[in-house]
Specification:
480 residues; alpha/beta; Rossmann fold; eight-stranded mixed sheet; globular
Length: 480
């Protein structure tokens, strides 16, 4: 399932106080398993009319557009007209009570600007993004996003659909959800590596819980490897690991893991979002497992799993603090053995917890919808173009991919499988300079008791979030 969390503050009164005419508020997805996950769509979108401090609306905005409704997985979602100018972070804080960080703010908070300001912008690199269906407006939406935030267009945005495509249907909730996911992945991978090429690879089959859609994703990833399309892969999808505990599912495990092992040998970095339900994940019937679970492919020992945090930074992007986001997928794999990079670098207290199994995640990134970022979309209709709050661990995978694209340029070669270096750095004196150690918060969710963030590595945030300007040179030094 796609893991993004398109979010609107779930307080209708707040919107009404701020001048919005709220007609409806409903989850975009109640995933096939029937829980809200973290995914909420902005029912009225971001109209600049109430966001502007002097009650003027942005050029291109239509303050009187007729509301548009779309049925998304059985839920009626109503959108209002928006323009092409995003609200500032300061406006979001004033109007909604929480930030909407710009690319420049996120770069500063996580030290990415230390690379970009020196010219390491991902030049010569290609970030591979794997999604179902894609978005029919991704090229134009990325261009609008770039213009709005003062970013250059990427050198190239290529869309690969070797399995074919399906016509986009804006009344199909599954397609709409994947279109949002695609937009998030492309816009924010590019935001962290503006000089990198983007290769969007789309499947005509929706990945859901279990094996559906997974063979197609594996085909796309193998296609990318065989055709040497790029050296960084971002995956913002997941299925509960336990849903594959049967012979056919185990074969899927083996096939994917063999691919990830091959990718590591070919110096390809593979990221995966860890999930948005904390330790609470569903079975095929949509029922939450009554014990903590983790998601695949994040649990693969050859994948760098990205968990989620709640980032607090100033409106100029200066890092302040971070706590674990309760939706951060994490825990202990019930299938994969503990890899050597964890055995050799995690303390005895963690070893007792893992009990010889793979721990998830490896690293983290801002994911909380209440400390959100914005994406620009225009795939519903001309009257619904606009910027949407978005969150979830889907934020982290493409942005980490962007950071590694910058790092590949810095190094002059692909960094490839980074987990051994990340864990060695975490277990060294360089840890505090390379990562923001997240030590508070937990990922208990839906009545399932999870884990607590603690100093060092933990099964909620991994080693924490990056200080990229320090981390990248240390990864390079470790790999020499």
């Amino acid at each position: 399932l796609p893991l993004q969390a398109v979010h609107v503050v779930a307080n209708i009164a707040l919107f009404q106080q701020k001048g919005f005419n709220v007609m409806s508020l409903s989850p975009v997805y109640r995933w096939r398993w029937g829980i809200a996950a973290a995914l909420l769509i902005l029912v009225l979108a971001l109209s600049m009319l109430p966001l502007a401090l002097r009650a003027t609306h942005a050029a291109g905005s239509d303050a009187h557009a007729k509301p548009f409704s779309v049925n998304v997985n059985g839920h009626q979602v109503i959108l209002a007209a928006t323009g092409v100018k995003p609200p500032t972070d300061a406006q979001c804080r004033q109007q909604f009570g929480h930030p909407c960080y710009s690319p420049q703010e996120i770069r500063r908070a996580y030290g990415v600007d230390g690379l970009i300001n020196k010219g390491d912008i991902g030049t010569g690199q290609t970030i591979i993004i794997i999604d179902s269906f894609g978005s029919p407006t991704i090229a134009s939406d990325l261009h609008t996003f770039d213009m709005s935030y003062g970013l250059p267009d990427p050198p190239s945005l290529k869309i690969y659909s070797p399995l074919g495509t399906k016509p986009f249907n804006h009344t199909n909730g599954t397609m709409v959800g994947w279109a949002f996911e695609t937009t998030l992945d492309v816009e924010w991978a590019h935001a962290m590596a503006p000089g990198a090429n983007i290769a969007l690879m789309t499947s005509p089959v929706a990945e859901t819980q279990g094996v559906q859609g997974m063979p197609q994703f594996l085909f796309l990833e193998q296609f990318a490897l065989d055709h040497n399309i790029g050296k960084i892969i971002s995956q913002s999808w997941a299925t509960t690991e336990n849903n594959l505990f049967y012979p056919g599912g185990r074969q899927v495990f083996a096939s994917f893991n063999n691919f990830y092992k091959q990718a590591a040998a070919d110096h390809v970095t593979v990221f995966s979002s860890s999930g948005d339900g904390g330790v609470a994940n569903p079975n095929f019937k949509g029922q939450i497992y009554p014990f903590p679970t983790v998601n695949f492919p994040a649990s693969s020992p050859y994948v760098t799993a990205v968990g989620g945090t709640s980032l607090m930074a100033t409106t100029s992007g200066h890092y302040q603090s971070e706590v674990a986001w309760s939706g951060s997928g994490g825990g202990v794999s019930q299938y994969w053995a503990e890899p050597d990079y964890q055995k050799n670098n995690l303390p005895s207290s963690v070893q007792r917890l893992l009990n010889g199994h793979r721990g998830v995640p490896d690293v983290s990134y801002n994911a909380d919808p209440n400390t959100s970022i914005l994406v620009y979309i225009s795939f519903l209709s001309s009257s619904n173009n606009g910027f949407y709050f978005i969150g979830g661990t889907s934020e982290g995978s493409p942005q980490w991919a962007g950071i590694i694209a910058d790092g590949n340029q810095f190094a002059g070669h692909p960094l490839g499988f980074i987990n051994p270096a990340v864990y060695a750095i975490g277990n060294s004196s360089r840890y505090s300079s390379d990562f923001h150690d997240v030590t508070t918060g937990n990922n208990s969710n839906s009545g399932i008791t999870g884990y607590h963030a603690k100093p060092g590595w933990d099964p909620v945030t991994g080693w924490g979030s990056p200080n990229a300007a320090n981390l990248i040179p240390d990864i390079v030094n470790h790999q020499r």
